Amino acid sequence: MGLYLLKRLGGLLATLVAASIVIFLALEVLPGDAAEMQLGQNATPAQVLALRTELRLNRPAVERYLVWIGGMARGDFGQSYSYEVPVSGLIEQRLQVTIPLAFLAMALTILLALPAGIFAADHHGRPSDVAVSGLTQLGLAIPNFWLAILLVLLFAVALHLFPSGGFPGWNHGLWPGLRALLLPAVSLAAVQAAILTRITRSAVLEVLGEDFVRTARAKGLSRPATLWRHVLRNALISVVTIMGLQFAYLVAGTIVIENVFYLPGLGRLVFQAIANRDLVVVKNAVLLLAAMVMVINFIVDLLYAVIDPRLRISRP
Amino acid sequence: MTPARASTIPGMSLGRGLRHPSLCIGAVLTLALVVMALLSLVWTPWPPDGIDIPHRLLSPGAHHWLGTDQFGRDVLSMVMAGAQTSLMVGVLAVAIGIGLGVLLGASAAALGGICEEALMRLTDFTFAFPAILTAIMLAAIIGPGTLTVVFAIGIFNVPVFARLTRGAAKAVWARDYILAARAAGKGRFAITIEHVLPNIMAPILVQGTIQFATAILAEAALSYLGLGTMPPQPSWGRMLFEAQTFLFTAPRLAVFPGVAIALAVLGLNLLGDGLRDLADPRLRRRR
Question: What's the pTM?
Answer without folding.
Answer: 0.85
